Amino acid sequence: MGRLDGEQVLMRIFIGESDRWENRPLHKVLVELFRREGFAGATVLRGVAGFGAASVLHTDGLLRLSQDLPLVIEVVDNEEKIEAILPQLDDMLQGGMITLEKARVIRYSK
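-> structure tokens emitted (110 positions)
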């Protein structure tokens, strides 16, 4: 694994906790994919509330704990690696959103 510093790309993938790919939780499949493809790292963040294109509100309120909470998967790597994986992600996501932005990496170590 090479050193990752300077200007890189931050990819955020917004999905729901109930999203699946081949009967498996999509967020787990994505993290495994990024690891297998040698990405620098990936983090899954669980939201306490949110809504998407359909404007359906998802919250972690007591009666909705087992419902579809929002998840964000963050990945930072070089632009070429991010761009190369986008077609595969497009096939896997049935909904949600992907955003890309420049990120300045100050420190990265194993």
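Strands lie at 6-16, 20-21, 24-25, 42-46, 49-50, 58-59, 70-77, 97-105.
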